[in-house]
C-alpha cells in the first residue's frame, strides 16, 4: 500500500516508483516457510486433496523482465494483472529476486482470503517508512504500526472518522474548501484562452485535496488554493514529492550504499520537510489548547484537538499519525475526482442524470451539505463506479503472520505473502458485465441484483480498511455535486488528453484539461 501510494504520487512527476506489479512485495514480502499446523482444516476426502504452493504456476524474473520492458507493461502495470490472469488463471506465484508472493486474481479467492484475515491484519514489512521514524524517535502511524499497537492506535483514530455520522461534522470545513475550489475554477476559466477551460485539472484537484485534508487534520487553512501558494506550503508539497520519488532507489539499493549515494539523503530530507511542516501546525494547536486550559476555558475543536486531548497518545505518536493520514489522503481523493470528472465529461447522459439528482435535492442557489448527500444515491454510484474503473489502490497485500491458511484448495504456511489484484478483479465481466463501460446504475439499490461486494473494494476490507474513507467520500461528494450544479463539464480535444483516454497509466494524467460551461438553465429550477 505504501508503495502503491508512492507509485501514484511518483506518477505525478512522471516517474514510476515500481518496476513491476507485485513489487508491493518489495515492501511487504516475508519469505514463506513453516510447516502445516493442526489448526488448518484437513480435506474430507482423498478427492479434495490439498495442494501446496509448489502446484501453482510461477512467474520468474526473466519472464517478468520480458513483460515489463519488451512487452511494455512497465507503464501499464494494472493491465499486466489482466494479462497474467489470462496466462496463469486466478492464482499463481511470483518469485522475482527476494520477492515471493502468491497472487490472487479472482473475486472468489479475494473474498476467501479477506474473510480469513487475522485479528491484526498486516500488509507486510514497512521498513521503508519506519526507518525514518526510528531515526527521529517519532511514533508509527496507522500505516506503519502493527499488531496490538496498531489495533490500539486504530481504536483512537477510528473515532470521529469512520462512522458516516462522524464525517458530517466536517461538512462545513470541507465546504469552505470547496468554495475556494469553485472560485479557482471561475478564475482559471476566465484566464484561459477559450474562457471556459481549466488546464491541468489534476493539479488543481491535488491542491484541493491537500487543503481539504489539512483543514481537517490541522484545523487550519494552509493556502493551497490561493493564487500564490505560501512558500512553506509549497516546500511541504515539494517534500512529499521528494520523499516518494526517492523511495524506489532507497528500497532497491543495499543499506551500505546510503552514505555513498545521494538518494537516501534526499529521501530523508523529504521526510524532514513533511514532519517540519506537520509538527509546526500541531504545536500551534497544542499551544492554543494549553492557553484555553490555563484560563479554564472549554477546549473546542475537531480532529486534531481530539487527538491532542486524548491521553492515550503521546505528542510523537500524534506527529506520526497525522503525517500518515495526510500522505494517504491527498492523491487518493484527487485522482478519483479527476477520473470522475473525466468520465462524466464523456458521458452526457450520466452527467445529466447526476445534474438532475443534485438539482432536485438541492434546489436554487443552495449549497449541497453533508446531510443533502444522503438523498443522492446516483452521486454515490458515480464515485463507486469511478473507483471500480480506476481504483487508486489497484494492488494490495496481506501477510498471514500468525497462522497457516488454505485458499482455493491450496495450503499456505504462516508468513505467506498474498498479493490481491483489485484492478483485474474489478474488470471481470462475470461480476461486471461490460466492464469497460461507465455505468453508475450498477450500484443503485433499486431492486436490481447488485454485484458481488468483493468485486470492487476500493477502500479495502475489514478492520485494516481505509480509515479516511468517510472523509474522502465527503470531500468528493461535496465537491462534485457543487461543480455539477454549476457547470457542465466537457472534454477538451487536446492531444495530451489522449494519454489519459488510453489509460496508459492508472493515475489521471496531470495535463488533462476540461471545459466548464456555466449552466444556463439554473434560473428555471
Ligand atoms: C478515494 C480515496 C481513498 C481511497 C480509494 C483509499 C483506499 C485505501 C485502501 C485500499 C487502503 C488499504 C486498506 C486495506 O489494506 O484493506 C487504505 C488505507 C489507509 N487509508 Fe485510505 N483511501 C482513500 C483516502 C484516504 C484518506 C482521505 C485518508 C486520510 C484521512 C486515508 C488514510 C488511510 C490510512 C491511514 C490507511 C492505513 C490504514 C491501516 O493500515 O490501518 N485514505 N486506503
UniProtKB/TrEMBL annotation:
Q: Which InterPro entries match?
A: CYP11_CYP27_families (IPR050479), Cyt_P450 (IPR001128), Cyt_P450_CS (IPR017972), Cyt_P450_E_grp-I (IPR002401), Cyt_P450_sf (IPR036396)
Q: Where is the composition biased (Polar residues)?
A: 36-47
Instruction: Write out the entry's keywords from A to Z.
Output: Heme, Iron, Metal-binding, Monooxygenase, Oxidoreductase
Which PROSITE patterns does this entry report, sorted A to Z? CYTOCHROME_P450 (PS00086)
Q: Which GO terms describe its biological process?
A: C21-steroid hormone biosynthetic process; cellular response to peptide hormone stimulus; cholesterol metabolic process; cortisol metabolic process; glucocorticoid biosynthetic process; vitamin D metabolic process
Q: Which organism is it from?
A: Oncorhynchus mykiss (Rainbow trout)
Annotated Gene3D superfamilies: Cytochrome P450 (1.10.630.10)
User: What name does the UniProt record give this protein?
Assistant: Sterol 26-hydroxylase, mitochondrial-like
State any GO CC term.
Answer: mitochondrial inner membrane
Q: Which cofactor does it need?
A: heme
Highest taxon listed in the record's lineage: Eukaryota
The GO molecular function terms of this record are: heme binding; iron ion binding; monooxygenase activity; oxidoreductase activity, acting on paired donors, with incorporation or reduction of molecular oxygen
Q: Give the Pfam families listed for this entry.
A: p450 (PF00067)
Q: Which gene encodes it?
A: LOC110501573
Q: Does the keyword Heme apply?
A: yes
Which residues does the annotated region (Disordered) include? 34-53
| Database matches in SUPFAM superfamilies | Cytochrome P450
